[in-house]
Amino acid sequence: MNPATQELKPVYQEMAEEVKLYGYVEVSPFVTRVKIALNLKGINYEFIQEDLDNKSPDLLKYNPVYKKVPVLLHNGNPISESLVIIEYIDEVWKGVPIMPNDAYEKAQARFWSTFIADKCHPALFKAIGSHGEEQAVAEAHELLQFLENELNVKGTKFFGGDNINLVDICAGYIAHWVVAAEEALGIEVVTKDKFPKIAEWCGNYINCQVVKDCLPPRERVVAYYKGRFGKA
Amino acid sequence: MNPATQELKPVYQEMAEEVKLYGYVEVSPFVTRVKIALNLKGINYEFIQEDLDNKSPDLLKYNPVYKKVPVLLHNGNPISESLVIIEYIDEVWKGVPIMPNDAYEKAQARFWSTFIADKCHPALFKAIGSHGEEQAVAEAHELLQFLENELNVKGTKFFGGDNINLVDICAGYIAHWVVAAEEALGIEVVTKDKFPKIAEWCGNYINCQVVKDCLPPRERVVAYYKGRFGKA
């Protein structure tokens, strides 16, 4: 990281400050993204458990548009949407960078993280929700192929290179949640023989200590998907 | 803008450089977003007209994921997705800032521009495409109310304050395209009496010189929507 850039960042962590994360049941991959970003930066925060069936007045006040978690509250300022929160965390707190420093690499990180969040996520869960219906799986595979190619071209351990970045954090739901859903249903959507680089990346990602600290226990996620998709 | 931040930005415009914008038929609000950003920065560029029915090998190579315009090519590096391109332009070129400098305001700009692009845009064109069907209009109004409130709370000429920023550029399709589609169909979706602040903002936006330079002629957009939505 450019030392000059670092100096521009306010050293908030030396002030007495309020950092609260509104989340819910520990299986949310979106809330976990924010937990990982805060963990990377070594930020202490208060976790506030939301009840989805009875959302708190605070959640409705802080995220009136989507009424969803995660919401980060920093010194009274609420921020919603996991990708927006992660970029905010990276800009406000020094330490391990989450975004690349170079403008072009930064644009690429934003491109891929949006693709993974907006395109791959619904396609993968549609394929899972359909218990592996052929057409749904084919559509998910078409998208996954782009990630496989990207990892192939980069030839690095993570999308971020030697270390995780925004793209890895964003793709984390594949490594932990999709894999757990596959186990719950006894199907394989992210087929290892078709996507060996993604399979390798999944292993690298969940074995990264800063990630491991924040992941909900595998068996709880499996149990959640067994309930959600209705198969024992 | 913080002078120290400015110094960190590479002075690319002093180098001989390649800037190409791949776009198509001048009615695209997405391509226009990028044109406005480039115009704000005073960047010279080559505009490459794409034929949507016969996409060029360059477009397919530079944006293999979406195969869509706009694509910005900067010194050989392709960037896709209008919001990603605009942030890139703002980071690479000095001059009039497009993003706020403050981290919280930046997060808010990202939040609103994504909301306007991902939520309001499809809802508005669904309402228009249905020729003003009640339920579709009600859904669009629910979203527009958030923008109306935001403008009310800010009390400024633009979402960006005294000057346009990412959010204004992103919302520009409402001021020019939605209004033209309303004219084409003889309906009103963004009702002026219900959304006076948005109506005022629309006027402010299209009268901003840097925007005006880049907008396709109103009558061409009207003609396009007459054709698209099948009503004379």
TrEMBL record, chains A, B:
Principal subcellular localisation of the protein: cytoplasm
Catalyses which reaction(s): RX + glutathione = an S-substituted glutathione + a halide anion + H(+)
CDD domains listed in its UniProt record: GST_C_Tau, GST_N_Tau
SUPFAM superfamilies in UniProt: GST C-terminal domain-like (SSF47616), Thioredoxin-like (SSF52833)
Subcellular location: Cytoplasm, Cytosol
Domain GST C-terminal as annotated: residue spans: 102-225
Alphabetically ordered keywords of this record: Cytoplasm, Transferase
Gene Ontology molecular function: glutathione transferase activity
GO CC, one annotated term: cytoplasm
Described function: Is involved in the conjugation of reduced glutathione to a wide number of exogenous and endogenous hydrophobic electrophiles.
Assigned protein family: Belongs to the GST superfamily. Tau family.
Protein's name according to its UniProt entry: Glutathione S-transferase
Organism: Helianthus annuus
